[in-house]
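Structure in, sequence out. Go:
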């Protein structure tokens, strides 16, 4: 479930970053794919530092912690947006 949330949030973050910066817009499909990769990496990075992971944040009753969920979504969306901006910058440098 963590990975699915990370991928969806990353794709959304990538498309939001593309909409905010027209210089880095690579098209809907590429924005989504790069956002997926960045979101997956962003979510994993959060897990590696010990601050993420919804499975580890469940309460005794099995309910998900809303703060952990929002942290996972935010980290993945930022990761997706950052990956898109980095990819767009590389594309702009290579096409000069």
């Amino acid at each position: 479930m963590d990975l699915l949330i990370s991928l969806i949030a990353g794709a959304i973050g990538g498309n939001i970053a593309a909409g905010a910066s027209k210089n880095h817009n690579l098209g809907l499909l590429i924005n989504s794919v790069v956002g997926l990769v960045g979101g997956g990496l962003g979510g994993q990075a959060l897990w590696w530092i010990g601050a993420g992971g919804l499975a580890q944040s469940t309460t005794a009753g099995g309910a998900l912690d809303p703060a952990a969920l929002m942290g996972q979504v935010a980290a993945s969306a930022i990761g997706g947006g950052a990956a898109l901006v980095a990819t767009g910058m590389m594309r702009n440098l290579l096409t000069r």
